[in-house]
């Protein structure tokens, strides 16, 4: 079992650094992908403030299928090109949306979600899935969170 640091009193950047270090340790100590995705969603949930959902959707037979997560029950399947997750896959790039209600194709799994950060995950150049983080606050995610979550996904990709 890995030792966690209490995030209370940490700056936002220090929390993200801690999440990254904890993720590195998780990936070093465990090779099972399901176990890693489960714990990484818990790590992010523990170290990132003002979020109401964090987890993974995994690409299976051309569709994103719900994977390990923290939060309320979520959509089971998302088509490529639909919603923020499907758009991240289609465009092959991170999506950071300040107001999900401004999108025509937003998929509302939790009506409380107002902003979203989605980072695509690749395995040997092929889409593996996405990391999806939702917040009940408008414009919750900044360059800081995007940078750290892209670093975290890069660590994950190197372990797949």
From TrEMBL:
One of its GO terms (molecular function) is L-methionine-(R)-S-oxide reductase activity. Residues 58-160 form the GAF domain. InterPro entries: FRMsr_CS (IPR000614), GAF (IPR003018), GAF-like_dom_sf (IPR029016), Phosphatase_reg/MetRdx (IPR051330). GO terms for cellular component: cytosol. Belongs to the free Met sulfoxide reductase family. This is GAF domain-containing protein. It comes from Proteiniclasticum ruminis.
